[in-house]
Specification:
The complex is a heterodimer.
Chain A: H1 2-15, H2 17-45, H3 57-81, H4 83-90, H5 94-99, H6 104-131, H7 141-168, H8 172-187, H9 189-192, H10 200-203, H11 206-214, H12 220-247
Helix pairs in contact in A: 1-6, 2-3, 2-6, 3-6, 3-7, 3-8, 4-7, 4-8, 6-7, 6-12, 7-8, 7-11, 7-12, 11-12
Chain B: E1 4-15, E2 18-29, E3 33-37, H1 44-51, E4 59-64, E5 67-68, H2 73-77, E6 80-83, H3 95-105, H4 113-123, H5 139-151, E7 157-161, H6 169-185, E8 187-192, H7 195-201, E9 204-209, E10 212-218, H8 219-227, E11 230-235, H9 241-245, E12 250-255, E13 261-265, H10 272-282, E14 286-291, H11 296-309
Parallel strand pairs in B: 3-8, 3-9, 6-7, 7-8
Antiparallel strand pairs in B: 1-2, 1-4, 4-5, 9-10, 11-13, 11-14, 12-13
Classes of the chains: A mainly alpha, B alpha/beta.
Chain lengths: 248, 310
Protein backbone atom coordinates (compact mmCIF):
# COMPACT_ATOMS: atom_id res chain seq x y z
CA UNK A 1 0.00 0.00 0.00
CA UNK A 2 2.91 2.32 0.80
CA UNK A 3 4.23 1.57 -2.65
CA UNK A 4 0.90 2.46 -4.24
CA UNK A 5 0.89 5.88 -2.63
CA UNK A 6 4.53 6.43 -3.54
CA UNK A 7 3.64 5.53 -7.12
CA UNK A 8 0.80 8.00 -7.08
CA UNK A 9 3.11 10.75 -5.82
CA UNK A 10 5.67 9.98 -8.51
CA UNK A 11 2.96 10.05 -11.13
CA UNK A 12 1.83 13.45 -9.87
CA UNK A 13 5.37 14.76 -9.93
CA UNK A 14 5.98 13.54 -13.45
CA UNK A 15 2.61 14.62 -14.82
CA UNK A 16 3.37 18.26 -14.08
CA UNK A 17 6.22 20.21 -15.66
CA UNK A 18 7.55 20.84 -12.16
CA UNK A 19 9.12 17.43 -11.74
CA UNK A 20 10.83 17.44 -15.11
CA UNK A 21 12.11 20.99 -14.75
CA UNK A 22 13.59 20.38 -11.33
CA UNK A 23 15.16 17.18 -12.57
CA UNK A 24 16.66 18.86 -15.61
CA UNK A 25 17.90 21.95 -13.79
CA UNK A 26 19.53 19.97 -11.01
CA UNK A 27 21.20 17.69 -13.49
CA UNK A 28 22.44 20.72 -15.39
CA UNK A 29 23.92 22.30 -12.25
CA UNK A 30 25.58 19.14 -11.07
CA UNK A 31 26.86 18.37 -14.55
CA UNK A 32 28.38 21.84 -14.79
CA UNK A 33 30.11 21.53 -11.44
CA UNK A 34 31.35 18.10 -12.41
CA UNK A 35 32.85 19.45 -15.60
CA UNK A 36 34.39 22.44 -13.84
CA UNK A 37 35.85 20.06 -11.29
CA UNK A 38 37.42 17.83 -13.89
CA UNK A 39 38.70 20.84 -15.79
CA UNK A 40 40.26 22.45 -12.72
CA UNK A 41 41.72 19.19 -11.55
CA UNK A 42 43.74 18.87 -14.72
CA UNK A 43 44.93 22.46 -14.38
CA UNK A 44 45.85 22.50 -10.70
CA UNK A 45 47.30 19.03 -10.49
CA UNK A 46 49.45 19.16 -13.63
CA UNK A 47 52.81 19.59 -12.00
CA UNK A 48 52.14 22.71 -9.93
CA UNK A 49 51.56 20.78 -6.72
CA UNK A 50 54.18 18.57 -5.14
CA UNK A 51 53.31 14.87 -5.54
CA UNK A 52 52.73 14.23 -1.80
CA UNK A 53 50.22 17.08 -1.64
CA UNK A 54 48.21 15.93 -4.59
CA UNK A 55 44.60 15.01 -4.11
CA UNK A 56 42.91 12.09 -5.83
CA UNK A 57 40.58 12.96 -8.65
CA UNK A 58 37.59 11.41 -6.85
CA UNK A 59 38.06 13.59 -3.84
CA UNK A 60 38.76 16.73 -5.80
CA UNK A 61 35.82 16.47 -8.17
CA UNK A 62 33.64 14.85 -5.51
CA UNK A 63 34.00 17.67 -3.01
CA UNK A 64 33.10 20.05 -5.81
CA UNK A 65 29.93 18.18 -6.82
CA UNK A 66 28.73 16.96 -3.43
CA UNK A 67 29.51 20.27 -1.76
CA UNK A 68 27.19 22.07 -4.13
CA UNK A 69 24.64 19.23 -4.06
CA UNK A 70 23.87 19.61 -0.33
CA UNK A 71 23.39 23.32 -0.90
CA UNK A 72 21.21 23.01 -3.99
CA UNK A 73 19.04 20.37 -2.35
CA UNK A 74 18.26 22.94 0.30
CA UNK A 75 16.28 24.77 -2.38
CA UNK A 76 15.07 21.81 -4.38
CA UNK A 77 13.52 19.75 -1.60
CA UNK A 78 11.18 22.45 -0.22
CA UNK A 79 10.10 23.13 -3.78
CA UNK A 80 9.13 19.50 -4.24
CA UNK A 81 7.86 18.72 -0.75
CA UNK A 82 5.68 21.77 -0.29
CA UNK A 83 2.77 20.42 -2.31
CA UNK A 84 2.72 16.93 -0.87
CA UNK A 85 0.02 17.37 1.76
CA UNK A 86 -0.87 21.07 1.73
CA UNK A 87 -2.08 20.90 -1.85
CA UNK A 88 -4.19 17.83 -1.13
CA UNK A 89 -5.67 19.69 1.77
CA UNK A 90 -6.46 22.68 -0.39
CA UNK A 91 -7.96 20.65 -3.22
CA UNK A 92 -9.77 18.54 -0.62
CA UNK A 93 -8.31 15.37 -2.02
CA UNK A 94 -7.06 14.19 1.36
CA UNK A 95 -10.54 12.73 1.81
CA UNK A 96 -9.71 10.40 -1.06
CA UNK A 97 -6.80 8.95 0.90
CA UNK A 98 -8.57 9.04 4.26
CA UNK A 99 -11.55 7.12 2.89
CA UNK A 100 -9.40 4.45 1.31
CA UNK A 101 -8.46 1.46 3.44
CA UNK A 102 -5.11 2.94 4.46
CA UNK A 103 -3.62 3.82 7.79
CA UNK A 104 -2.25 7.30 8.30
CA UNK A 105 1.24 5.85 8.68
CA UNK A 106 0.92 4.27 5.25
CA UNK A 107 -0.20 7.54 3.73
CA UNK A 108 2.67 9.51 5.26
CA UNK A 109 5.30 6.88 4.48
CA UNK A 110 3.98 6.58 0.95
CA UNK A 111 4.29 10.29 0.36
CA UNK A 112 7.73 10.38 1.95
CA UNK A 113 9.06 7.49 -0.11
CA UNK A 114 7.52 8.91 -3.25
CA UNK A 115 9.48 12.10 -2.80
CA UNK A 116 12.65 10.30 -1.75
CA UNK A 117 12.42 8.04 -4.78
CA UNK A 118 12.19 11.07 -7.01
CA UNK A 119 15.22 12.65 -5.34
CA UNK A 120 17.03 9.32 -5.57
CA UNK A 121 16.84 9.61 -9.33
CA UNK A 122 18.92 12.76 -9.12
CA UNK A 123 21.35 11.16 -6.70
CA UNK A 124 21.61 8.12 -8.91
CA UNK A 125 22.61 10.26 -11.86
CA UNK A 126 25.22 11.98 -9.72
CA UNK A 127 26.65 8.64 -8.74
CA UNK A 128 26.70 7.55 -12.36
CA UNK A 129 28.43 10.79 -13.31
CA UNK A 130 31.11 10.35 -10.68
CA UNK A 131 31.61 6.72 -11.61
CA UNK A 132 32.21 7.72 -15.20
CA UNK A 133 35.59 9.06 -14.05
CA UNK A 134 36.56 5.43 -13.77
CA UNK A 135 36.82 5.29 -17.54
CA UNK A 136 40.17 7.02 -17.60
CA UNK A 137 41.30 6.94 -14.00
CA UNK A 138 41.19 4.73 -10.97
CA UNK A 139 38.69 6.18 -8.55
CA UNK A 140 37.87 5.76 -4.89
CA UNK A 141 34.49 4.05 -4.85
CA UNK A 142 34.40 4.04 -1.06
CA UNK A 143 34.54 7.81 -1.03
CA UNK A 144 31.74 8.06 -3.56
CA UNK A 145 29.58 5.55 -1.69
CA UNK A 146 29.96 7.43 1.61
CA UNK A 147 29.13 10.71 -0.08
CA UNK A 148 26.13 9.30 -1.93
CA UNK A 149 24.81 7.68 1.22
CA UNK A 150 25.36 10.88 3.20
CA UNK A 151 23.64 12.97 0.58
CA UNK A 152 20.79 10.52 0.37
CA UNK A 153 20.26 10.60 4.14
CA UNK A 154 20.50 14.37 4.14
CA UNK A 155 17.94 14.67 1.37
CA UNK A 156 15.65 12.17 3.07
CA UNK A 157 15.85 14.25 6.27
CA UNK A 158 15.01 17.37 4.30
CA UNK A 159 12.03 15.54 2.82
CA UNK A 160 10.78 14.35 6.21
CA UNK A 161 10.82 17.90 7.52
CA UNK A 162 9.21 19.10 4.30
CA UNK A 163 6.40 16.56 4.60
CA UNK A 164 5.74 17.64 8.16
CA UNK A 165 5.62 21.34 7.36
CA UNK A 166 3.41 20.59 4.37
CA UNK A 167 0.93 18.84 6.65
CA UNK A 168 0.55 21.93 8.80
CA UNK A 169 -0.81 24.37 6.25
CA UNK A 170 -3.12 24.64 3.28
CA UNK A 171 -0.81 26.90 1.31
CA UNK A 172 2.00 25.15 -0.57
CA UNK A 173 4.00 28.37 -0.83
CA UNK A 174 3.88 28.93 2.91
CA UNK A 175 4.96 25.34 3.45
CA UNK A 176 7.82 25.81 1.00
CA UNK A 177 9.11 28.94 2.67
CA UNK A 178 8.87 27.55 6.19
CA UNK A 179 10.62 24.37 5.14
CA UNK A 180 13.39 26.33 3.49
CA UNK A 181 13.94 28.58 6.50
CA UNK A 182 13.85 25.65 8.92
CA UNK A 183 16.32 23.65 6.84
CA UNK A 184 18.59 26.59 6.39
CA UNK A 185 18.55 27.19 10.14
CA UNK A 186 19.32 23.55 10.85
CA UNK A 187 22.17 23.52 8.33
CA UNK A 188 23.98 26.56 9.68
CA UNK A 189 23.15 26.00 13.31
CA UNK A 190 26.76 25.30 14.16
CA UNK A 191 27.85 28.59 12.58
CA UNK A 192 25.90 30.47 15.21
CA UNK A 193 27.59 28.50 17.92
CA UNK A 194 31.07 28.45 16.42
CA UNK A 195 32.57 29.49 19.76
CA UNK A 196 31.46 26.37 21.54
CA UNK A 197 31.78 23.28 19.36
CA UNK A 198 30.55 21.00 22.12
CA UNK A 199 27.26 22.76 22.79
CA UNK A 200 24.13 20.64 22.62
CA UNK A 201 22.57 22.89 20.00
CA UNK A 202 25.30 22.42 17.49
CA UNK A 203 24.73 18.71 17.76
CA UNK A 204 21.42 19.29 16.01
CA UNK A 205 23.06 20.85 13.03
CA UNK A 206 22.44 18.76 9.94
CA UNK A 207 25.67 19.98 8.38
CA UNK A 208 27.73 18.72 11.29
CA UNK A 209 26.41 15.24 10.69
CA UNK A 210 26.76 15.47 6.95
CA UNK A 211 30.35 16.63 7.08
CA UNK A 212 31.93 13.26 8.04
CA UNK A 213 30.20 11.66 5.05
CA UNK A 214 31.68 14.23 2.74
CA UNK A 215 35.14 13.25 3.99
CA UNK A 216 34.32 9.68 3.14
CA UNK A 217 33.76 8.67 6.72
CA UNK A 218 30.79 6.49 7.54
CA UNK A 219 29.87 6.88 11.19
CA UNK A 220 26.87 5.03 12.67
CA UNK A 221 26.40 7.97 15.02
CA UNK A 222 25.59 10.21 12.06
CA UNK A 223 23.51 7.58 10.30
CA UNK A 224 21.51 7.14 13.50
CA UNK A 225 21.04 10.90 13.77
CA UNK A 226 19.57 11.15 10.28
CA UNK A 227 17.32 8.16 10.77
CA UNK A 228 16.04 9.52 14.07
CA UNK A 229 15.48 12.88 12.43
CA UNK A 230 13.39 11.25 9.69
CA UNK A 231 11.38 9.10 12.10
CA UNK A 232 10.67 12.07 14.35
CA UNK A 233 9.24 14.25 11.63
CA UNK A 234 7.27 11.48 9.98
CA UNK A 235 5.74 10.61 13.35
CA UNK A 236 4.84 14.24 13.88
CA UNK A 237 3.18 14.27 10.47
CA UNK A 238 1.08 11.23 11.33
CA UNK A 239 0.05 12.93 14.56
CA UNK A 240 -0.83 16.09 12.67
CA UNK A 241 -3.04 14.22 10.22
CA UNK A 242 -4.67 12.31 13.04
CA UNK A 243 -5.56 15.62 14.63
CA UNK A 244 -7.47 16.40 11.44
CA UNK A 245 -9.63 13.38 11.96
CA UNK A 246 -10.14 14.04 15.64
CA UNK A 247 -10.69 17.76 15.59
CA UNK A 248 -12.10 18.11 12.09
CA UNK B 1 -32.99 -12.41 5.22
CA UNK B 2 -31.88 -8.86 5.43
CA UNK B 3 -28.36 -8.04 6.42
CA UNK B 4 -27.48 -4.83 8.18
CA UNK B 5 -24.74 -3.00 6.33
CA UNK B 6 -24.55 0.27 8.21
CA UNK B 7 -25.24 0.66 11.87
CA UNK B 8 -24.79 4.05 13.47
CA UNK B 9 -25.52 4.45 17.13
CA UNK B 10 -25.66 7.67 19.08
CA UNK B 11 -23.35 9.51 16.73
CA UNK B 12 -22.45 12.82 18.26
CA UNK B 13 -19.95 15.35 17.08
CA UNK B 14 -19.07 18.43 19.07
CA UNK B 15 -17.36 21.37 17.42
CA UNK B 16 -16.09 23.83 19.99
CA UNK B 17 -18.88 23.17 22.46
CA UNK B 18 -21.62 23.18 19.82
CA UNK B 19 -23.21 19.92 18.87
CA UNK B 20 -23.08 19.71 15.10
CA UNK B 21 -24.60 16.25 15.16
CA UNK B 22 -26.44 14.89 18.14
CA UNK B 23 -27.36 11.30 18.93
CA UNK B 24 -27.96 10.17 15.38
CA UNK B 25 -28.78 6.47 15.24
CA UNK B 26 -29.97 4.40 12.33
CA UNK B 27 -29.46 1.16 10.53
CA UNK B 28 -29.41 0.38 6.85
CA UNK B 29 -30.03 -2.97 5.20
CA UNK B 30 -28.42 -4.40 2.13
CA UNK B 31 -29.99 -3.16 -1.07
CA UNK B 32 -31.61 -0.12 0.45
CA UNK B 33 -31.20 3.46 -0.64
CA UNK B 34 -31.23 5.93 2.20
CA UNK B 35 -31.83 9.59 1.55
CA UNK B 36 -30.40 12.13 3.91
CA UNK B 37 -32.32 15.37 3.87
CA UNK B 38 -31.76 18.56 5.70
CA UNK B 39 -31.35 22.29 5.32
CA UNK B 40 -27.91 23.77 4.93
CA UNK B 41 -25.69 23.30 7.93
CA UNK B 42 -27.91 20.65 9.44
CA UNK B 43 -25.08 18.20 9.88
CA UNK B 44 -25.53 16.00 6.80
CA UNK B 45 -21.93 16.22 5.68
CA UNK B 46 -20.61 15.87 9.21
CA UNK B 47 -22.60 12.67 9.66
CA UNK B 48 -21.28 11.33 6.38
CA UNK B 49 -17.72 12.15 7.33
CA UNK B 50 -18.18 10.20 10.52
CA UNK B 51 -19.71 7.26 8.67
CA UNK B 52 -16.70 7.09 6.36
CA UNK B 53 -14.09 7.50 9.05
CA UNK B 54 -12.95 10.92 7.92
CA UNK B 55 -13.98 12.41 11.20
CA UNK B 56 -13.87 10.79 14.60
CA UNK B 57 -17.21 10.96 16.40
CA UNK B 58 -17.13 12.60 19.82
CA UNK B 59 -19.45 9.88 21.00
CA UNK B 60 -21.14 6.84 19.52
CA UNK B 61 -20.03 4.27 17.02
CA UNK B 62 -20.31 3.28 13.40
CA UNK B 63 -20.37 -0.29 12.24
CA UNK B 64 -20.06 -1.25 8.60
CA UNK B 65 -21.24 -4.82 8.06
CA UNK B 66 -20.53 -5.44 11.72
CA UNK B 67 -16.99 -4.03 11.59
CA UNK B 68 -16.36 -1.14 13.93
CA UNK B 69 -15.05 1.94 12.13
CA UNK B 70 -13.01 3.13 15.09
CA UNK B 71 -11.45 -0.17 16.06
CA UNK B 72 -10.80 -1.57 12.58
CA UNK B 73 -10.79 1.44 10.30
CA UNK B 74 -8.98 -0.28 7.44
CA UNK B 75 -11.35 -3.24 7.20
CA UNK B 76 -14.39 -0.99 7.55
CA UNK B 77 -13.18 1.54 5.00
CA UNK B 78 -12.54 -1.22 2.48
CA UNK B 79 -16.31 -1.80 2.40
CA UNK B 80 -17.19 1.82 1.69
CA UNK B 81 -17.14 3.97 -1.39
CA UNK B 82 -17.38 7.66 -0.60
CA UNK B 83 -17.98 10.70 -2.71
CA UNK B 84 -17.51 13.82 -0.59
CA UNK B 85 -19.25 17.10 -1.28
CA UNK B 86 -16.32 18.24 -3.36
CA UNK B 87 -15.15 15.35 -5.54
CA UNK B 88 -11.57 14.53 -4.52
CA UNK B 89 -9.92 14.55 -7.92
CA UNK B 90 -6.28 14.83 -8.89
CA UNK B 91 -6.67 17.31 -11.68
CA UNK B 92 -3.30 16.71 -13.24
CA UNK B 93 -4.12 13.08 -14.02
CA UNK B 94 -6.25 11.56 -16.74
CA UNK B 95 -9.49 9.79 -15.90
CA UNK B 96 -7.91 6.38 -16.51
CA UNK B 97 -4.86 7.14 -14.39
CA UNK B 98 -6.97 8.46 -11.58
CA UNK B 99 -9.38 5.54 -11.55
CA UNK B 100 -6.48 3.09 -11.70
CA UNK B 101 -4.99 4.71 -8.61
CA UNK B 102 -8.38 4.64 -6.89
CA UNK B 103 -8.74 0.94 -7.67
CA UNK B 104 -5.25 0.19 -6.43
CA UNK B 105 -5.70 2.07 -3.19
CA UNK B 106 -8.96 0.25 -2.59
CA UNK B 107 -7.17 -3.08 -2.88
CA UNK B 108 -8.56 -4.21 -6.20
CA UNK B 109 -6.19 -7.00 -7.19
CA UNK B 110 -3.87 -5.98 -10.00
CA UNK B 111 -5.38 -8.52 -12.39
CA UNK B 112 -8.80 -6.94 -12.11
CA UNK B 113 -7.86 -3.28 -12.10
CA UNK B 114 -8.30 -2.74 -15.80
CA UNK B 115 -11.68 -4.41 -15.79
CA UNK B 116 -12.80 -2.51 -12.70
CA UNK B 117 -11.83 0.78 -14.34
CA UNK B 118 -13.71 -0.11 -17.51
CA UNK B 119 -16.82 -1.15 -15.64
CA UNK B 120 -16.83 1.97 -13.47
CA UNK B 121 -16.33 4.19 -16.52
CA UNK B 122 -19.09 2.46 -18.39
CA UNK B 123 -21.50 2.72 -15.47
CA UNK B 124 -20.88 6.43 -15.10
CA UNK B 125 -20.89 7.18 -18.81
CA UNK B 126 -17.20 8.03 -18.98
CA UNK B 127 -16.13 5.52 -21.62
CA UNK B 128 -15.11 8.23 -24.08
CA UNK B 129 -13.31 10.28 -21.46
CA UNK B 130 -10.59 7.87 -20.37
CA UNK B 131 -7.71 9.72 -21.96
CA UNK B 132 -8.83 13.20 -20.96
CA UNK B 133 -7.25 15.20 -18.18
CA UNK B 134 -9.65 15.58 -15.27
CA UNK B 135 -8.76 19.27 -15.19
CA UNK B 136 -10.30 19.74 -18.63
CA UNK B 137 -13.58 18.01 -17.89
CA UNK B 138 -16.77 19.91 -17.20
CA UNK B 139 -18.16 20.01 -13.69
CA UNK B 140 -20.72 17.35 -14.49
CA UNK B 141 -18.13 14.95 -15.83
CA UNK B 142 -15.89 15.60 -12.87
CA UNK B 143 -18.82 14.68 -10.66
CA UNK B 144 -19.17 11.43 -12.60
CA UNK B 145 -15.50 10.67 -12.13
CA UNK B 146 -16.09 11.21 -8.42
CA UNK B 147 -18.92 8.68 -8.47
CA UNK B 148 -16.86 6.24 -10.55
CA UNK B 149 -14.13 6.49 -7.94
CA UNK B 150 -16.62 5.64 -5.20
CA UNK B 151 -17.96 2.48 -6.86
CA UNK B 152 -14.78 1.16 -8.44
CA UNK B 153 -14.08 -1.48 -5.81
CA UNK B 154 -17.67 -2.66 -5.72
CA UNK B 155 -18.19 -1.66 -2.11
CA UNK B 156 -20.97 -2.89 0.13
CA UNK B 157 -21.93 0.65 1.03
CA UNK B 158 -21.82 3.65 -1.27
CA UNK B 159 -22.01 7.04 0.39
CA UNK B 160 -22.66 10.01 -1.86
CA UNK B 161 -22.72 13.55 -0.59
CA UNK B 162 -24.94 15.64 -2.87
CA UNK B 163 -24.14 13.63 -5.99
CA UNK B 164 -26.32 15.58 -8.41
CA UNK B 165 -25.11 19.07 -7.64
CA UNK B 166 -23.96 20.92 -10.72
CA UNK B 167 -25.25 18.42 -13.24
CA UNK B 168 -27.54 19.18 -16.14
CA UNK B 169 -31.04 17.63 -16.14
CA UNK B 170 -30.07 14.75 -18.42
CA UNK B 171 -27.04 13.91 -16.35
CA UNK B 172 -29.14 14.12 -13.20
CA UNK B 173 -31.53 11.59 -14.70
CA UNK B 174 -28.62 9.29 -15.57
CA UNK B 175 -27.11 9.57 -12.13
CA UNK B 176 -30.44 8.88 -10.48
CA UNK B 177 -30.83 5.79 -12.63
CA UNK B 178 -27.32 4.77 -11.62
CA UNK B 179 -28.10 5.25 -7.94
CA UNK B 180 -31.24 3.14 -8.29
CA UNK B 181 -29.18 0.48 -10.03
CA UNK B 182 -26.55 0.59 -7.30
CA UNK B 183 -29.28 0.20 -4.72
CA UNK B 184 -29.96 -3.26 -6.07
CA UNK B 185 -26.73 -4.83 -4.89
CA UNK B 186 -25.18 -2.24 -2.59
CA UNK B 187 -26.52 -0.06 0.14
CA UNK B 188 -26.54 3.56 -0.82
CA UNK B 189 -26.66 6.61 1.40
CA UNK B 190 -27.07 9.90 -0.35
CA UNK B 191 -27.54 13.36 0.94
CA UNK B 192 -29.37 16.00 -0.97
CA UNK B 193 -31.60 18.95 -0.54
CA UNK B 194 -33.52 18.26 -3.72
CA UNK B 195 -36.70 16.75 -2.36
CA UNK B 196 -38.20 15.08 -5.44
CA UNK B 197 -34.89 13.31 -5.86
CA UNK B 198 -35.39 11.57 -2.56
CA UNK B 199 -38.84 10.47 -3.56
CA UNK B 200 -37.55 9.13 -6.85
CA UNK B 201 -34.60 7.08 -5.73
CA UNK B 202 -34.78 6.41 -2.01
CA UNK B 203 -36.46 3.65 -0.01
CA UNK B 204 -35.74 5.31 3.30
CA UNK B 205 -35.61 8.90 4.29
CA UNK B 206 -34.00 10.65 7.16
CA UNK B 207 -34.49 14.27 7.81
CA UNK B 208 -31.84 15.87 9.90
CA UNK B 209 -32.21 19.29 11.39
CA UNK B 210 -29.80 21.11 13.65
CA UNK B 211 -27.86 17.93 14.12
CA UNK B 212 -30.80 15.81 15.19
CA UNK B 213 -32.87 13.28 13.33
CA UNK B 214 -36.38 14.64 13.08
CA UNK B 215 -37.73 12.00 10.75
CA UNK B 216 -36.59 8.49 10.06
CA UNK B 217 -38.71 6.11 8.10
CA UNK B 218 -39.73 4.54 4.86
CA UNK B 219 -40.44 6.80 1.93
CA UNK B 220 -44.05 5.52 1.96
CA UNK B 221 -44.63 7.18 5.30
CA UNK B 222 -43.50 10.45 3.88
CA UNK B 223 -45.61 9.95 0.79
CA UNK B 224 -48.64 9.24 2.92
CA UNK B 225 -48.14 12.50 4.72
CA UNK B 226 -48.03 14.06 1.31
CA UNK B 227 -51.12 12.57 -0.21
CA UNK B 228 -53.04 12.88 3.01
CA UNK B 229 -56.79 13.25 3.20
CA UNK B 230 -57.59 16.29 1.15
CA UNK B 231 -59.20 16.90 -2.21
CA UNK B 232 -58.91 19.98 -4.30
CA UNK B 233 -61.95 20.69 -6.44
CA UNK B 234 -62.92 23.46 -8.77
CA UNK B 235 -66.59 24.28 -9.25
CA UNK B 236 -68.10 26.92 -11.51
CA UNK B 237 -71.28 27.22 -9.43
CA UNK B 238 -70.28 26.15 -5.97
CA UNK B 239 -73.15 25.34 -3.62
CA UNK B 240 -73.22 26.43 0.00
CA UNK B 241 -70.60 24.75 2.11
CA UNK B 242 -73.29 23.04 4.20
CA UNK B 243 -74.41 21.02 1.19
CA UNK B 244 -70.88 19.80 0.66
CA UNK B 245 -70.42 19.04 4.33
CA UNK B 246 -73.50 16.84 4.13
CA UNK B 247 -71.73 14.46 1.74
CA UNK B 248 -70.59 11.41 3.71
CA UNK B 249 -66.88 11.57 4.68
CA UNK B 250 -66.41 15.30 4.27
CA UNK B 251 -65.18 16.90 7.45
CA UNK B 252 -64.26 20.42 6.41
CA UNK B 253 -64.48 22.75 3.42
CA UNK B 254 -62.16 25.68 2.81
CA UNK B 255 -62.48 28.18 0.04
CA UNK B 256 -59.11 29.05 -1.40
CA UNK B 257 -58.22 32.53 -2.67
CA UNK B 258 -58.32 31.33 -6.28
CA UNK B 259 -61.92 30.11 -5.94
CA UNK B 260 -61.06 26.44 -5.59
CA UNK B 261 -62.32 24.43 -2.66
CA UNK B 262 -60.21 22.27 -0.40
CA UNK B 263 -62.20 19.44 1.06
CA UNK B 264 -60.88 17.49 3.99
CA UNK B 265 -62.26 14.02 4.41
CA UNK B 266 -61.96 11.08 6.72
CA UNK B 267 -59.07 8.72 6.12
CA UNK B 268 -59.80 6.07 3.55
CA UNK B 269 -63.24 7.46 2.74
CA UNK B 270 -62.77 9.59 -0.33
CA UNK B 271 -65.88 11.54 -1.27
CA UNK B 272 -64.62 12.04 -4.83
CA UNK B 273 -67.24 9.91 -6.43
CA UNK B 274 -70.05 11.49 -4.42
CA UNK B 275 -68.80 14.94 -5.34
CA UNK B 276 -68.77 14.16 -9.05
CA UNK B 277 -72.19 12.65 -8.78
CA UNK B 278 -73.47 15.68 -6.91
CA UNK B 279 -71.99 18.01 -9.46
CA UNK B 280 -73.65 16.21 -12.31
CA UNK B 281 -77.02 16.08 -10.55
CA UNK B 282 -77.06 19.68 -9.33
CA UNK B 283 -75.11 21.47 -12.05
CA UNK B 284 -72.23 22.70 -9.85
CA UNK B 285 -70.04 22.88 -12.93
CA UNK B 286 -67.13 20.67 -11.84
CA UNK B 287 -64.05 21.43 -13.88
CA UNK B 288 -61.29 20.00 -11.75
CA UNK B 289 -60.84 17.43 -9.02
CA UNK B 290 -57.51 16.39 -7.58
CA UNK B 291 -56.10 14.84 -4.50
CA UNK B 292 -54.49 17.80 -2.77
CA UNK B 293 -50.80 16.94 -2.46
CA UNK B 294 -48.89 18.56 0.24
CA UNK B 295 -45.62 19.16 -1.48
CA UNK B 296 -42.63 17.40 -0.05
CA UNK B 297 -41.30 20.83 0.71
CA UNK B 298 -44.24 21.46 2.97
CA UNK B 299 -43.72 18.21 4.84
CA UNK B 300 -40.10 19.07 5.13
CA UNK B 301 -40.79 22.54 6.40
CA UNK B 302 -43.36 21.15 8.84
CA UNK B 303 -40.90 18.67 10.23
CA UNK B 304 -38.05 21.10 10.57
CA UNK B 305 -40.35 23.81 11.84
CA UNK B 306 -41.86 21.66 14.57
CA UNK B 307 -38.39 20.99 15.77
CA UNK B 308 -37.65 24.67 15.95
CA UNK B 309 -40.80 25.36 17.89
CA UNK B 310 -40.15 22.59 20.38
Amino acid sequence: MIINIARKELKSLFSSPMGWIVLALLQFVFGTFFLIGVDQYLQTMSGMVRPEERLGVTEYVGSNVFGIASFIMLFAVPLLSMRLISDERRQQTLTFLFSAPLSLTEIVLGKFFGLVTFLSIIIFFMAAMMSSLNLWSEIDFGYITANILGLWLLVASFSALGVYVSSMTQQPVVAGIITFVALFGLLILDHFLAGDPNSVMSYFSLMRHFEPFSRGLLDTKDVAYFILFIITFLTLTVRRLDADRLRG
Amino acid sequence: MTTITVEASDLTRIYGGREAVKDVSFTLNKGEVLGFLGPNGAGKSTTMKMLTGNLAPSKGSVKICGIDMIENPKEAKALIGYLPEQPPLYRELTVDEYLTIAARLHRVSSKHIKKAVDVAKQRCGLTEMGKRLIENLSKGYQQRVGIAQAIIHNPMVVILDEPTVGLDPIQIRDIRALIKELGGEHSVILSTHILPEVEMVCDHVQIIHKGELVFNGAIEVLKQQRYGNKLLIGLNNPPANEILLAIPGVTAVDTLPNGMLRIKHQDGLSPAEALVQGSVNNGWGLYQINPDQTSLEEVFVQLTYQEQAA
